[in-house]
Amino acid sequence: MSIKISIKTSISENRIKNFVLFTDKEFKINGFSKISLAKQSSYINKIINSNKSKDQKFLTFNLNSYQKVILIKLENIVSSIDNEKKGAEFYKLIKSNSLFDLTFFDINIQETSNKNKNMLDEFFHGVKLKSYEFNKYKSKNKIYKFNFDILYKNKKFNFNKDKRYDSLVEGINLTKDLVSEPGNILHPDEYAKRINQLKKFGLKVNIYDEKKLKKLGMNAIIGVGQGSIRGSYLVTIEWNGLKSNKKPLAFVGKGVCFDTGGISLKPAKFMEDMTYDMAGSAVVVGLMKSLALRKAKINAVGVVGLVENMPGGNAQRPGDIVKSYSGKTIEVLNTDAEGRLVLADALTFTEKKFQPEFIVDLATLTGAIIVCLGSEFAGLFSNNDKLSKQLFDSGIKVDEKVWRMPLHKNYDKLMNSKNADMQNINYIGGAGSTTAAQFLQRFILNKTPWAHLDIAGMAFSKYGGAFNSGGATGFGVRLLNKLIEDHYE
């Protein structure tokens, strides 16, 4: 997909192919003479009056045999997310109608921009988010091209001035690309190499391979990946946008590149979807790239644990006991509860090494959260009310919603082990997502504000959503970016 946007103060009439016009909530258009439509004004108004309805967002009709008009209705009061969704809906419209070469005119932009100076940025942000497709492995890969000429008389028109939206799209698309890759391509070895390439954007990347992990005592991560011929890694990604030594914001992601369940083997049906069990790490990687591209004025660190959970001859067995980086011991009763083992070491390491202002971890951790919240909300578990509220509010603003779930000491007894400090699964039954989060909380040793986002129901969509057409959603990048923008930058 290719989208080209140009700002022009005038366009010759012989270049005009299709008209795309913003209107008011009544589909009213003024100023036809400004866009070479004076002769057709009465005809257009007649069509509008005979076809418009209150529920319509777009009105499309032929101006003649070679020109089409698309009217986009704007309400008087709109939010950023409304503008973005309208852009996404617009992309769906032009793609379904094969309108691959449009001339985009806006004649009410001055009035609109007084109310929302970022209206066009937000609109095209929605267009770009919706237009993502992962088709690199198709032998016949059709590339759609959309060309937009935005006619605006004022040369000082403020559009895409700071590249903030472009950087966000690039970060989200990287997340989607990583989640969409098949397991034979994006195994831990390859994943670590791709993260290392982010150095060119000004990020500091450190890769801890198995030798270094063993030296550090990260046996929880090592145990998960020991059945695979691929390596296991902990990768840190640092962005220092402030000259001061202010504490960084920390983001931790589960990166299980393929999850067979290990010896506790998953059913074969739908196992192919387990390529997206590294989505939490992909969100962290995409977010860090976005922060670097837009030169965010914060210090931040991303930490991801990269493994492949395979039932090999050296695989971890149910009943094994491992000593984590924290010093706490874990009895592994089920090898398919592996994500929490990866995060256990990553969380303690992040807290100890970076001493961050807060830690947010993301993981496709439990099927139980899908039973509870479906594909509408991610599960939020936290030891801090302030951070929880910030995440909830940020999620509403960008339509990446989270819902807070309970943590309580009484759940600890479900994770206590007779043979070790704790076990990795609750075999008594119930509260699967909460007990998993309660397990993770044990590895926050110094009361650092922490939030766990279980994104199992949000990272991948079979049917698509407002800003994606199915497949990897990139859920979490916009949420965390908004958290940073509104509260920490």
How much of the sequence is in beta strands? 15-25%
What summary fits the major beta sheet? 8 strands, mixed
User: What's the CATH topology name of the largest domain?
Assistant: Aminopeptidase
* CATH class division of the largest domain: Alpha Beta
Task: Label the CATH architecture of the largest domain.
Answer: 3-Layer(aba) Sandwich
Q: Write down the Rg.
A: 25 Å
Terminal CA distance: 32 Å
Can you walk me through this structure?
The structure is a single chain. It is elongated, with a radius of gyration of 25 Å. The protein has helices at 41-51, 80-96, 109-115, 119-130, 164-180, 188-196, 210-216, 219-225, 279-293, 339-354, 368-373, 385-398, 432-441, 477-487, and strands at 2-8, 18-23, 58-62, 68-73, 103-104, 145-151, 204-208, 233-240, 249-259, 299-309, 320-323, 329-332, 358-363, 378-382, 402-404, 422-423, 450-454, 460-461, 471-472. The chain is 33% helix and 21% strand. By secondary structure, the protein is an alpha/beta fold. Strand 14, helix 12 (385-398) and strand 15 (402-404) form a beta-alpha-beta unit. The strands form 5 sheets. It has an 8-stranded mixed beta sheet with strand order 7-8-10-9-13-17-14-15, with helices on both faces. A 4-stranded mixed beta sheet has the order 3-4-2-5, covered by helices on one side. The two termini are 32 Å apart. Helix 5 (164-180) runs antiparallel to helix 9 and helix 9 crosses helix 14. It has 2 domains: 2-151, Leucine Aminopeptidase, subunit E, domain 1 (3-Layer(aba) Sandwich), CATH 3.40.220.10; 164-487, Aminopeptidase, CATH 3.40.630.10. It is built from 14 helices and 19 strands.
